[in-house]
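Box 3.1. Reading complex inputs
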Amino acid sequence: MTDLSVDLGFLKLKNPVIAASGTFGYGLEFTPFIDLNKLGGFVVKGLYSSPKQGNPPPRLVETASGLLNSIGLQGIGVKEFSEKILPQLEIFQTAIIANICGENEEEYAFVANYLDKQEGISAYELNISCPNVKKQGFCPALDPETTYSVVRLVKESSSRPIITKLSPNVKDIVEIAVSAQEAGSDAVSLVNTFLAMAIDTETGKPVLGNVFGGLSGPAIKPIALRMVYQVASHIKIPVIGIGGILSGKDALEFLMVGAKAVEVGTANFIDPTSTVKIIEELKEYCQVKGIENIEEVIGSLTL
Amino acid sequence: MIKHSQARITHKETWEDYFLFSLESPIIASQAQPGQFIMVRTSLNSNPLLRRPFSIHSKEGKNIEIFFQKSGLGTSLLSQKKPNEFLDIIGPLGKGFNSESDLNRKDVALIGGGRGIAPIYFLAQKLRSQGASVRVFYGGKTLSDLPLREKFEKAGIKLFCSTDDGSLSFKGFITDLFEIEIGKLLPTYIYACGPELMMKKLAKTALDKKIPAEFSLESVMGCGFGVCWGCVRKIVKDGEAGWHKICEEGPVFKAEEIIWQEEEK
């Protein structure tokens, strides 16, 4: 019997597979397809203090093995989530992680404080890296000082563990990860999407209504993997790997370079059963290789 | 209940760039309503990555049909599938046409432009079964864009066709033919699916003449079941305009709910 559970220190997961924010709704949307209890956890769609309208369409364009989006975090606010969604999530035996957004530092803290008063949340993922909210993809995760400042504020003012979600659109992602760690973040998750664009050659205009968008999907996996490896090699807090994971093999690559868990995103659109299939594939891999505990795989890379 | 399943292609028809697949899917067939759609995986590789949305064209027993035009990589790959192969599908999705029987829908006009004819057949059959008198308007660029006309005629549905180049029937836009015909008999309800400009014109006519109307909108979709928020349109709900998901709140909306896109160029 293989043990797939992983321990992030502040949170034990029954397996290392977490559904990523923005690709999994508020969880309930996936109940026609999978048993949520099978997941290591899921991260709900980003929450602001009030509902957000998001960006003008078109918001999606497919690129080679990738998906470019400029949604702009449209969604219900923290109040509606707490009152209408969260009570329905109570019955599930899986880690529920709330993704927290903010126009400014105070809003991040406000949302965290609001959620502190609610039951049934395992941790917060601090979304400081969405490229679709401000002009030119600007977000706190682009700079070590703004990263430090917002993580510090939320950490000091709220009671739950914090996972800081990092942007790949930086010169040195290790430097940002170190900042998050110094500010007290309990873990980091990486990477968010890559700032990118696509052109309609018929009209000579950008395809996306917002001009720029964030690229996700298998196209970004090798770059995300390299970044996760670099970060995991340099920080002490756990790393959650994200970026184009479609299969158990993809997840294993991230675990081998040092990620303690992974988030599965775009795959949920293509096959809503992806997360469960990936868990099955991890189990099968461990059985074939005679691995008793998946934690043996984590950081097992040999150069 | 939304179902994710593998559906066998039991029958395929081909007309140049247009295709019709019959899919064995008892659960979807038992629930499907006109105007709802399914998401189809066109490739098991990662290119193209996303599923493609297709209106349910009809249901016959335990089968549903989809009708589509080859217009890009996804539909091109799909068009190469053969009978007895399986398609990975999710459905039925979305909210379809309001097609419950009531007095308002005695004399209905259904308009399909190009591939937008897809959901019209299913709707026409349902409305007819409820005793409505149905007129279908089917427009395309040229003769080869109207492959389903025989199917409608065979079913005994009153059909009006137009082609932009006059290669078949009325020469001009379907909206022009529609204006002429409703001058003779005003419909009590309008349903349409097709190009944006066609629907925009029809919506104006419907609002001017105070005829209730519903439109099936099209969009690129990431998931088809409401989680990605990628397919939004500007829609008025409760007196307020905002971005609403076509996949979940639509794809069918009422004329007065839709804010039409500005004419470009």
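In summary: The CA atoms of residues 112 and 124 of chain B lie 11 Å apart.
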